[in-house]
Amino acid sequence: MRKTDYKKNGERGMTLIEVLTAVAILALVTGLIYGSISRSLAARDLADRIEERYSTARIAMDRISRELSMAYLTMHMSYDKRTQTLFKAKSESPVDRVLFSSMAHLRLAPDVHESDLSYIEYYGEYSNDGKGRTRIMRKEKPGLDDKPEEGGVAEVLAEDISGLELRYWDDAQKEWADDWDSTGIEKGNKLPRLVKITLLMLDENGKELKFVTKTRLFMDKPLGF
To answer: Average pLDDT for residues 114-142, to the nearest whole number?
Structure first.
């Protein structure tokens, strides 16, 4: 029996060392590729979370600003107690509370007997997911009546926030006020000219992010009808 000459015509097999070296190089390259892809996916997820957080803040502040800017009072409530306009704000932690009559209502269904008048309230509550996170609630009650603090439909405006601060510019005192009550004596039948809105959120590292804007109340004087 003749032994096969594996070296004939330049052919030969791979040694164990060569196989192990090739496997090691392949494993190294695979690890580098996996690590690069993993870091890219993590960076994408982080960017998505940051974008979602800023989008949440922007949408919430835009809506609060728009609806506050359309707050109004009318002298008509002095003669007709069936309807009442008001602006009541109270400093609370971590989310300030404000209830006001506004002309910002949008009719979302055809042939509904609704106008652009409504009561809108912003306040805070803890989420029910067991994590103790704070969220901003928005409640709206279409139309006007003599019980503005009752009823209405509540919805979540923004979740996972750390605070909402509202400050009201008092033209008479030339200072920012923490509270406001247009049904009281001191600020009776008056609206603030400006509202300062500060939204607080936490970033991925637990650092507080602050978003600040101001909105002008266009009808800061009570209407005569």
So the answer is: 87
